[in-house]
Amino acid sequence: MAIYSLKNVRNKFGNLFTLLWIISESNLIYTSEVREMIWTQDETYNNLTLSAGFVWQKTARSRLKCSVTCTNDERCGAFFFSDADKSCLATPFLLKSTGEGITVIGTEYYFFRPANCPVDYTYNRKNNLCVKINNAETLNFNDAKTECESIANGGLVTIRNQNQHAFIVKELKKLLLEEPFYIDGTDEAEEGKFIGKDGKEITYLDWDSISQIDMSHEAQDVLCLNPTEDFKYEDVDGTTTFRYICEVVSK
Ligand SMILES: [Ca+2]
Ligand SMILES: [Ca+2]
Questions:
Q1: Per-residue model confidence as pLDDT tens digits over 81-119
Q2: What gap in Å lies between CA 35 and CA 47, rounded to an integer?
Q3: Structural domain harbouring 163
Q4: The domain spanning residue 227 has which CATH number?
Q5: Number of independent structural domains in the chain
Q6: 221 C-alpha vs ligand 1 centroid, how far in Å?
Q7: How many CB atoms lie within 10 A of CB 14?
Q8: Nearest to 78, CA basis, from 51, 35, 118, 49
Q9: How far apart are the CA of 175 and the centre of ligand 2, in A?
Q10: Ramachandran region of residue 56, left (φ > 0), alpha (ψ -120 to 50) or beta?
Q11: Start and end of every C-type lectin domain (predicted)?
């Protein structure tokens, strides 16, 4: 595997970038106000590209230019680059088998994924979430939590904002399962104040209609997503066995 590293270049640094680009690609110093991106080549998928389902296909002068363009588009999770015809093709998802591509000799495949995101977890670059929706078994809240924590940096998924919630809901809807899923968060210590596994308060709480009017909040200290109301939040007591969503937090 070859490691290909760069830092995101925002628009305000665009002119600087262009200038440096002309001087030398290999000696570039990238200015970043976001985070360092690591693109990794997976040679399993050499000589492949996609005929459908990609975000865009452009001409890029180099592999590096292709990776920068991909980095700047949050829809891009991986890219295919061909040095022969300078084709740069962005895809929102990571390949799982060579059967997903079509043969184009000379094309290289690069993806971004935190090193500690397990292969059976789904990584979403836009939201920086590495998650696994456990739909094979149901557990009570504490057992689900323990199960997710069996992997280093793992736990029930902490949903911090609307975009992350929307991504999770989209993934859940693919499963066509009308069942609740446990997520991270408990207000056991202080009623109404939900704390995440990192010890910080969860301020994004998209309650379903029931949770706002029922009278059982004192005894209901954990969160699940309610399938009957578009997977909005419901507070429950955690004893019922539900399916659950794990994440591994990037190191
Ligand atoms: Ca409560
Ligand atoms: Ca409730």
A1: 999 999 999 998 888 889 999 999 999 999 888 888 898
A2: 30
A3: 122-248
A4: 3.10.100.10
A5: 2
A6: 4
A7: 11
A8: 49
A9: 24
A10: beta
A11: 126-247
